[in-house]
Every structure is written in C-alpha cells, then in structure tokens.
Amino acid sequence: MNALLFLAITLAVAEDDIYSPFKRSCVIQNRINSVTAETKNLQMRIEIDEQQERNFMDTLFYLYRDLKYATLTEDRTRLELEIEGIQKKLHDVRTHKVDLLRDIRKSADKVTQPFRDNIARTNRIERHVGLEDSGNFVEERYKTQDSIKKITEALANKYASLAAKVEAQNVVEKATKKFKNDAKKIKEYVEKKAEAAYKDIHAKVVKAINGATENGVVRSDVEAVAKTAIEGLVNTLEMKAAALPNIKVAEKLADKIVKTQLKGVKRTTKKVAKKATKKATKKVTKKTAPKKK
Length: 293
Fold this sequence. Notes:
Layout: H1 2-14, H2 26-69, H3 73-108, H4 115-123, H5 126-129, H6 137-178, H7 183-213, H8 222-229, H9 231-242, H10 247-288
Helix pairs in contact: 2-3, 2-4, 3-8, 3-9, 6-7, 6-8, 6-9, 7-8
C-alpha cells in the first residue's frame, strides 16, 4: 500500500517533466482556437452566399425564358428592369463571397500544418483553403495555373462567340441597306464587324480574369472567382442576346437577301437577252428587206 502511494506521488510530481506531443503553449492554443472559430464562422457565411446565389440564378433562368416569350414592349421593359435588379444583387453576393474566400484563406494561414489541416478537416473547408499534406506545393501551383488557363480560355471563347453573334445579327440589316443587297459585300462587312466584336470581348474577359486571380486562388475556387470577375460584361451581353430576334427571323432575312439577289440576276439576264434579240432581229430584217431601185 505504501509502495503504491509513493509511486502515485512520484508520478504526480514528475508529470510536468514528461514530454507530450499534444501539449502546447497558451499562445499557440489560443491562436488555434481563434482560427477554428473564425474559419467556422466564415464557412457559414459562405454557405449563406452560395444559397442566395443559387436562388438568384433560378430566378434569372425563369426571367430570361419569359423575356423570349414577351411580345409587348411594356412586358419586355418590366422584365428587363427586373433582370437588371437581380443581376446587380447576384453580382453583389458573388463579390462578397469572393471576399469571404480570401478572408478564410488568410485566417487558415495564421497557423501551420498540421494544425491548419486539422482545422480545415474539422470545419470542412478543404475546398476553400486546400490541405498542405495533400501533395507537392509546386505541382499544386502548376495544376492551379492550368485550371486558370483552361477556364479563362473556355469563358473567353464562349462569351466572345456570343458577342460576335450579337454583333452579326445587329449589323445585317444595316449592311443590307448600305450595300443595296450586294450579298458579297454584306457578308464581308458582317464578318469584319463580328470578328472585331469577338477580339474585343475575348481580350476583356482574359484581362478581367487575370486581374482577379493574380494574387492567388485555391484551385477549387478558380471558376467562381473567374465568373465573378466577368459578371458585369456577361450580363450586358446576355441582355443584348435576349433582345435579338429569334433564329427564324434571321433566316428569313438571309433568304430575303438571297432572293433579291436572284431577282436582280434574272432581270439583268432578261434585259441582256432582250437587247440581243432586238439586235439579231434588226440584222435579219436588214438582210431580208428588198433593196429600193
């Protein structure tokens, strides 16, 4: 009994001298606790923004669909105003979300691995801050750059093509009047304008995304950051596209141009044929007419 009591006292006295990998100073432990609480709060706010973003996107889907069906100017105006209001709210939410993503990453970087990774897993924020023990940093950076490049190219081509289509349909009627239904000149003019619109929007999209990602971004957030950077430009383009006549109207206009050209060719052919016939008739008449004595 005395031996057990002596052993317990010895262990109690020597407890402070025993090494433990789980023991930390108050400074580090307080920092870990504050980062855990801060990142958890930021994650909740990000989830709220993401839900609002989904709601606004659903609303815009229905509004854009209705805009295609609206025929009265009054209805189209009201729908366009409502779309502009929702787009502004959506842009504000996305901008706020990007700010929160930067904040959560800065907060997580206040502690080092493995504390950082433990906090990320506990609060389920891996997709926002990444994990330091998940692989090679250099390789991850290259993958992020590749992701930025692919997403930038995809978005730039998508919206530059839309801009070219909008510009082409806008200038067809103008070109028809300007060149008096000359199909070749109309085609060259429309292609020139569409190409210029494509290059302009492509350059603007690339510049906006590069500016938004130049200070660093987690690979999983690249698409969200890129789309937020070009949102104002995209909204303007989509409004212009929604206001365009449908494809059937454009096809009718193209058919009209072709038919007009064909009519012009037929008229010219008839005139030439008539002139040739008259000349031939005059010659025959002169040959067959009796000479005066």
